[in-house]
Amino acid sequence: MKKHVLLALALCSLLYSQGSDGKKVFETYCWGCHHQTAVAFGPPFNEIASKRTQDEIEAYIINPKAMYKAFGYKRTVMTKLKLNDKERKAIAKYILSYKGK
Q1: Which terminus in the chain has less CB density within 10 A, N or C?
Q2: Where are the alpha helices (DSSP H) in 1-101?
């Protein structure tokens, strides 16, 4: 029983830390131009999440200048962020958590 409780706590901790990683990346790199549900300089996350897949979001983060035309935008002012794979996946998941909000 004790092992099950410890395992459950460890799993909850892991899940919580993965979710908060995306928020931390957002606060570090994205907050100046994007907000979760309100228009700022860039589109809000709920708008992005309603239109894009995780792969599309990650591709745009990797190379916005190559992707903006594919997404139907007339221009892009987003700079290329130097995020590692873990950060990029975390922010994409965080953005997608706003789908339907």
Answers
A1: N
A2: 2-25, 45-51, 54-62, 64-67, 85-96
